[in-house]
From TrEMBL:
<dbReference type="InterPro" id="IPR016833">
    <property type="entry name" value="Put_Na-Bile_cotransptr"/>
</dbReference>
<feature type="transmembrane region" description="Helical">
    <location>
        <begin position="166"/>
        <end position="189"/>
    </location>
</feature>
<feature type="transmembrane region" description="Helical">
    <location>
        <begin position="201"/>
        <end position="222"/>
    </location>
</feature>
<feature type="transmembrane region" description="Helical">
    <location>
        <begin position="278"/>
        <end position="298"/>
    </location>
</feature>
<dbReference type="Pfam" id="PF13593">
    <property type="entry name" value="SBF_like"/>
</dbReference>
<protein>
    <submittedName>
        <fullName>Bile acid:sodium symporter family protein</fullName>
    </submittedName>
</protein>
<feature type="transmembrane region" description="Helical">
    <location>
        <begin position="124"/>
        <end position="146"/>
    </location>
</feature>
<feature type="transmembrane region" description="Helical">
    <location>
        <begin position="96"/>
        <end position="117"/>
    </location>
</feature>
<keyword id="KW-1133">Transmembrane helix</keyword>
<feature type="transmembrane region" description="Helical">
    <location>
        <begin position="228"/>
        <end position="250"/>
    </location>
</feature>
<keyword id="KW-0472">Membrane</keyword>
<keyword id="KW-0812">Transmembrane</keyword>
<dbReference type="InterPro" id="IPR038770">
    <property type="entry name" value="Na+/solute_symporter_sf"/>
</dbReference>
<feature type="transmembrane region" description="Helical">
    <location>
        <begin position="65"/>
        <end position="84"/>
    </location>
</feature>
Amino acid sequence: MRLHVDRFTLALLAAVALAWAWPLSGAPAAALDRFTDVAIATLFFLHGARLSREAIRAGATHWRLHLLIFAATFVLFPLLGLALTPLATRGLTPELYLGLLFLCCLPSTVQSSIAFTSMAGGNVPAAVCSASASSLLGVFLTPLLMSALAGAHGGMADPVEAIGKIVLQLLAPFVAGHLLRPWIGAWVARRRALLRYTDQGTVLLVVYAAFAASMGSGLWQSTPVESVYLLLAICALLLAAVMIALTMAARRLGFDRSDEIAIVFCGSKKSLATGVPMAKVLFAGPALGAIVLPVMLFHQIQLLVCAQVAARYARRRAAPAPGAGDDVAD
């Protein structure tokens, strides 16, 4: 898993480097924009075809767990983003600050939340249901939250219009794929690598397009390197705060160990695969590269940290130490 994370990180860096060396404008940029739209629709079509209705039914009844995860994703994260405003507005550029707020409004991941929950020995059916529902809720909640938190910052589409575009570009292909699952679901399940490469390839395409436009506009020449370092620290702080809060809340509310694991991993994640396509719909212009940078940084931090936390959960399940606590955050 670490090798996979490293490879994707290198691929993201390569996409940024390619954008710096080969920025696009005019007709080539427009052609790439249309191609990424098709790639995004294909990605969500395949996700819909892969989603199991049995998994949905198995996890859907665990409403207390889902409410806690959704509260962390769509309430706690945005509140923390607002709480960090005095720090962020002093050290970040307006585009990076807007991207930080956008990060806080995104839904949870699907694939990595489930993978880490499984690795740690958690409630996988509940994680499948919660992470999938979070992605669907994000179609509607992310534009509304962004409008409430950052609508005055400019550069963002009208929330109602944005929801319509997201429904058309993301939700409609997802629903179509799910409706066709009885006929193509087995084929998609046998080709898990196809979905992984489609997922990663789409993200790389959008990242390249966004950064290519940013390079051409001179945005990065006006972005101090200190702002990027501060952004990295803020992303790490956000992840640590949410993981600690979720661990404490799960134990205080009486959830068992397997549920706690699902809560910690589903509630602390933010989706790069959903966030980058959403950013493309919500924001226009050369600022898009800076707006998606917080999501990219947070994605790498959450993978590295959650891999260690999941391994620790797994070790403690295999060989519990008498009298030892299960604190995720120490």
